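Render this sequence as a predicted structure.
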Amino acid sequence: MEALSTFLNNAMRQLDVPLLVVFPYIAVFTMLLVTIQRYRTATFTYSSLSSQFLENRKHFWSLVPMHYGILVVLFGHLIGFLVPRTVLAWNSYPLRLYIIEVAALTAGIITLTGMINVVMRRITTPKLRVVTSPADWVLFALLLVQLGSGVYIAVFHPWGSSWFASSASPYLWSLLKLQPEVAYVQDMPLAVRLHIIGAFVVIAFFPFTRLVHILVTPNPYLWRKPQVVRWYGGK
């Protein structure tokens, strides 16, 4: 197992530049270009295409934890990216480090559980299978892998809030400044590097999916009043 891990790490090093330097720019460019083009030519598709009216019970136990959990996870990543020194200062006290690590892991598990329920709901409900597109299945697979790898990293490569602030954040800032420095993440565990690459895969695929709805409706349904759906007829 150790030999396989060493082999994969060495193989990944040969791909560091194309995957961690070139691909992020391709992903972001694709996201921006296709998002704008889709909005100009198919504005109606900028919707979450909610399936709540087709099935509501499983909807609550899948979409609600998934949405709330992912907001916490993304907010944590954003804080680590924007104010890494503040995060490191917070983590200088062990108790506060434990708090942020447990909170992040809990949010990740909640999000992953919600995402698994989303997929199971789509598989087990005939009405939903009919309205689920191939792009939806690809998106679900990408999100499951990304969330699963995130939880794996939190468990087996702990103190992520610290190493994200000290290594991943400078790497991302270097990309933003158009001065990519892959050395920041080159020596990180293979799972972490694959997680970073996976994030850019999701970004590249983003404009082809229903995720685009977050650009025009920033999640108001998280705090809106419940919608009442009434069915009439014998069926």
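Summary. The CA atoms of residues 68 and 137 lie 21 Å apart. The first helix runs from residue 2 to 14.
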